[in-house]
Structures are given as structure tokens and as C-alpha cells.
Amino acid sequence: MTNLVVQNFAANVALAIGASPIMSNNGLEAGDLAALGGGLVVNMGTTTSEIRSNHLKALAAYNAIGGPVILDPVGAGATQQRREGVKALMAGGYFDLIKGNEGEIRTVAGAQGVKQHGVDSGASQLDLKDRITLVKTTAARESNIVLMSGVVDVISDGERTFTISNGHKYLGEITGSGCTLGTTIASIMAVEREDKLLAAVAGILMYEIAAERAGEREDVKGPGTFVPAFIDELYHIREECVRGDGKWMEAAKIESA
């Protein structure tokens, strides 16, 4: 259930990594879809009160059978409507993972006065140590996984915490890079259900290493040529995994925090 701006991109990313996407914002379909054994992304990018109602219906359907659900509170600190939307969604059910930039995760955590001009994070208010503390304490409070994306990503389940420094600058120059990261993580969490933090870390690394590989290609001249190359590289990593070739993981820049 992603925003209208990136539905096509998200569907193509899902296909590239071997998932089977359906882009439905109709909460009445959620019971049937949840029974298929997949994961749900609830993305607030183009939210309205009607869409929120559908999000809550879908959340309840996936919670009922234990299907993995990701919350992407896009632009959570930008408006009062979005701040209220975050509260309503979090009160309406359980999210296995909440992902966002610094401004969004600070809003989720309950910080006051977060300023966002659209979907950007806004000026960073925290150093890395404080970001790690915020992510870890929020994950412990919510009994789930919290991912704060940035130049250095921070992810925690409240006990295990990691920083990841992969990625490419072009991810910040295109629409939907954060949204489709959610698509990737949800797809892997649908398969790896025993250790959801492991699934999330695998998704981040696959996504960001593919971005690095795409950004280094000679045919990539900027953000416009980056997107198709990025989808290609996600597909190539998928194919390498099918062959049992895990060498792509040698590029991982991950540290325990």
C-alpha cells in the first residue's frame, strides 16, 4: 500500500528481486492477500483520511495471521495531519518494522517540533551516537525493528543494533528510493520470518550494494540513467543468489553498534 508517486517503481523493484507485487490501496482486499503469505508495506506518502482507513483495515488483516508489516511514515513531521496519521496507525496495530529518515523516526518516537519540508529529513539534529540511542530505545519500546536511513543507516531490534554505510548519492536524487527500500525489506521478511532483523539487514545490503554497483557503471551519467541501471543490478544480485554466489556481500559495510 504505497504512495501514488512510486507505485510503478516499487512494483518493478519487487519483480527485480524475485517478489510478486500487487499495488492495492483497498483495505477490503487485505484479508485475501494476507492469506497468500506475503508481507505488507503501509506507506504514508500520499495519505488521506480514506487511505488511512484502508491502511488500518489491512494492518488488522495481516496482524490477524502474523504476516510481516512495515510502516513507512513518509513526511511524518511535515504536517499535523501526518503526525496524527502516525499516531493512529501505531495505535491501530503492530508493525514488525518502522523505517524512515531522521525526521520521520523522531516523529514516531514522539519528538516535538520536528520540521520537514515534504519528504526530506530536514536538518539533522542528532549525531550518530544519538541516532543509535534513539533507534535502539524506540525499537525496545515498540518491541519491533526500527530503521533510520541516512548516509549511515541505523537499525535495531532493541537488543541488536547495527550501522550500515553502503549506498550511493543518486539514491537521494530520485523519487521513491526510501519507499522501494521498504518494498525490498518486506519481500525478504515475507520469506525469512524467524529472524526479521536478519531479513531487514539483508534487504538493506542488497538494495544499497545494488545502488553502488549501478552508480559505478559507465552508462550511468546521473539520476535519470541510474534508475534503470539500479533495477538491473538488483536483478543481477538476485540471479547471483540463485546461483549460490554470495560474493556481492563482500561489499557490505556493516558494524555492530
TrEMBL record:
Cofactor(s) required, per the database record: Mg(2+)
Reactions it catalyzes: 5-(2-hydroxyethyl)-4-methylthiazole + ATP = 4-methyl-5-(2-phosphooxyethyl)-thiazole + ADP + H(+)
Ribonucleoprotein in keyword set: no
Keywords assigned: ATP-binding, Kinase, Magnesium, Metal-binding, Nucleotide-binding, Thiamine biosynthesis, Transferase
Superkingdom field: Eukaryota
E.C. no: 2.7.1.50
Enzyme superclass (EC): transferase
Protein name in the entry: hydroxyethylthiazole kinase
Gene name of the record: THI6
